[in-house]
């Protein structure tokens, strides 16, 4: 059974639910060797387990190699990631690529898998011409107009819809950074750009947050062309309800934000877009610490925004934020800077920021010195007080040489109330972000599972693993062998069946 290296599609993999159990076993055997794209790169973020896979497959009956899948668990874990089909002209991890969603569906104690590209308009152009035509986030590349059909993306960058995959109001969405997003079917077929009930595609951020009372989804959209930031509220029916506007001193990259019951909090570090720098051959994104950090509090009741200025730092990802009396508490991963031309070697650490709204003051405390990223909490408590946060780090037990720096092998569970942590060390296996999977019928904050992909670089296989969130250090609840390598990716979510 072979794939087509031009299209990246497997001849038999395009029909959902077409395999019988015996066929599924055959496909498992056939696909364990490699689904890699047929090109190589010296870029460490396109090598090892960062190397993209090109083949789309289905396996209807995965093999559980340890533990057991909880029989009462029903839903699907989906994870997106940058997975360029064609060898890029230029590439800047984690800013570029084609989206590929990997989905593990759990039901009645069994698991099935499928992966599929997000068929964006930009990928369609590249599929038609048979090679990459768009530039990267840090090295934009103009596209020859002669190869474009009317209405196609002229570049110089593509929208690969590769950062996150979420469901809101019944819509499954593949998200990029502050640009249009793509709606998918449950079988991961790309429907097209999503409009949120408007007359044109809507620009959404990669990270979106839901209000605990109304269920509305808030999303942030910036642009490299303008200092204006849009914050959309999309209601529980999937329609755009309102758009708020925030004006910053310069076009600024803002990857994530915080929602509490009363506020939207925008933490705008001085990673700004500088078109003059780009014209001079430098990165479009420039780190300018002299601009400081601007934190904007937007009251959801429509009151005037509140600005707080402090020293420069950067945040890619927040774990959660919530109101506590007159304070706003925010748990996040702290970067000293975000300078793509001169990356910082300092550890990125899990911290708590407390904003005294009345005094316009910010304090910060570090939980522990671990170098971490991709923090998550139990999503049911988003915008409300949380005690536990989960995030990967790299421990000394990992001894595979020459791995890129964005490699993790240990999942941490922080207890922010007690100032303690526990861990699950995967040794030489490489992991990524965890998603919290609530245990059916249970409502305790850590009563559930952590879903994570793990890759073994020694025999090049990937597993889908469920850890007990309440007892993270124990043996996994289930280890499920995947039929094809799952590359390192970005964000994923558990979507329960009900
Ligand atoms: Fe992110």
Notes on the protein architecture:
Belongs to the carotenoid oxygenase family. It is a single chain. The protein is mostly beta strands and 498 residues long. The protein has one domain (21-496): YVTN repeat-like/Quinoprotein amine dehydrogenase (Methylamine Dehydrogenase, Chain H, 7 Propeller), CATH 2.130.10. The chain is 5% helix and 36% strand. The chain is built from three helices and 34 strands. The strands form nine sheets. Strands 2, 29, 30, 31, 32 and 33 form a six-stranded antiparallel beta sheet that branches. A hairpin with a 4-residue loop joins strand 27 and strand 28. It is globular, with a radius of gyration of 22 Å. Fe (ii) ion is lined by residues 163, 206-207, 255, 316-317, 490-491.
Question: Could you give a quick summary of the protein structure above?
Answer:
This protein is mainly beta and 498 residues long.
Layout of helices and strands, plus pairs?
Elements: H1 21-31, E1 58-59, E2 63-67, E3 75-79, E4 100-107, E5 110-117, H2 121-129, E6 164-168, E7 171-175, E8 179-180, E9 182-184, E10 190-193, E11 203-204, E12 208-210, E13 217-223, E14 226-234, E15 240-247, E16 258-259, E17 263-268, E18 271-273, H3 275-279, E19 285-287, E20 293-299, E21 306-310, E22 318-324, E23 327-334, E24 349-356, E25 361-366, E26 388-393, E27 410-415, E28 420-425, E29 430-431, E30 435-438, E31 448-456, E32 461-468, E33 478-481, E34 492-496
Antiparallel strand pairs: 1-5, 2-33, 3-4, 3-34, 4-5, 6-7, 7-9, 8-11, 9-10, 12-13, 13-14, 14-15, 16-17, 17-20, 18-19, 20-21, 22-23, 23-24, 24-25, 26-27, 27-28, 29-31, 30-31, 31-32, 32-33
The structure holds fe (ii) ion.
């Amino acid at each position: 059974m072979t794939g087509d290296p031009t299209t990246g599609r497997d001849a038999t993999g395009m029909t959902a639910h077409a395999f019988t159990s015996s066929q599924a076993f055959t496909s498992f055997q056939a696909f364990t060797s490699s689904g890699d794209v047929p090109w190589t790169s010296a870029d460490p973020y396109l090598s090892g387990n960062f190397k993209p896979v090109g083949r789309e497959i289905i396996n209807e009956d995965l093999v559980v190699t340890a533990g057991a899948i909880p029989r009462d668990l029903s839903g699907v874990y989906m994870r997106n990631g940058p997975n360029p089909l064609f060898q890029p002209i230029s590439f800047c991890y984690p800013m570029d690529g084609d989206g590929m969603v990997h989905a593990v569906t759990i039901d009645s104690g069994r698991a099935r898998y499928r992966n599929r590209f997000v068929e964006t308009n930009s990928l369609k152009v590249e599929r038609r011409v048979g090679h990459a035509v768009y530039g990267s986030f840090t090295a934009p590349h103009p596209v020859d107009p002669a190869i474009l059909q009317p209405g196609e993306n002229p570049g110089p960058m593509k929208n690969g819809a590769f950062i996150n995959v979420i469901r809101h109001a019944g819509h499954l969405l593949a998200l990029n950074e502050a640009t249009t997003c793509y709606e998918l079917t449950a079988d991961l077929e790309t429907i097209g750009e999503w409009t949120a009930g408007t007359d044109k595609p809507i620009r959404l951020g990669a990270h979106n947050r839901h209000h605990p009372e109304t269920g509305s989804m808030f999303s942030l959209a910036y642009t490299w062309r303008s200092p204006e930031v849009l914050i959309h509220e999309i209601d529980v029916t999937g329609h755009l309800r309102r758009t708020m506007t925030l004006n910053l001193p310069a076009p600024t990259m803002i990857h994530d934000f915080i929602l509490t019951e009363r506020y939207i909090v925008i933490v705008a570090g001085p990673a700004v877009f500088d078109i003059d720098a780009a014209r001079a051959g430098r990165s479009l994104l420039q780190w300018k610490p002299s601009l400081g950090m601007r934190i904007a509090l937007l009251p959801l009741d429509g009151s005037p925004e509140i600005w707080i200025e402090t020293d420069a730092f950067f945040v890619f990802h927040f774990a959660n934020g919530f109101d506590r009396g007159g304070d706003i508490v925010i748990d996040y991963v702290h970067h000293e800077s975000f300078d793509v031309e001169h990356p910082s070697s300092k550890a990125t650490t899990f911290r708590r920021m407390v904003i005294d709204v009345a005094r316009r003051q910010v304090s910060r405390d570090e939980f522990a010195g671990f170098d971490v990223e991709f923090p998550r909490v139990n999503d049911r408590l988003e915008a409300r007080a949380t005690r536990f946060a989960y995030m990967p780090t790299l421990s000394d037990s990992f001894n595979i040489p020459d791995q890129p720096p964005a490699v993790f092998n240990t999942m941490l569970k922080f207890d922010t109330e007690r100032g303690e942590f526990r861990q699950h060390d995967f040794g030489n296996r490489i992991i990524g972000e965890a998603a919290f999977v609530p245990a059916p019928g249970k409502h305790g904050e850590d009563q559930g599972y952590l879903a994570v992909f793990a890759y073994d670089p020694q025999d090049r296989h990937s597993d889908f693993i469920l850890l007990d969130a309440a007892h993270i250090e124990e043996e996994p609840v289930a280890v499920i062998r995947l039929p094809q390598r799952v590359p390192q990716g970005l964000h994923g979510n558990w979507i329960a069946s009900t």
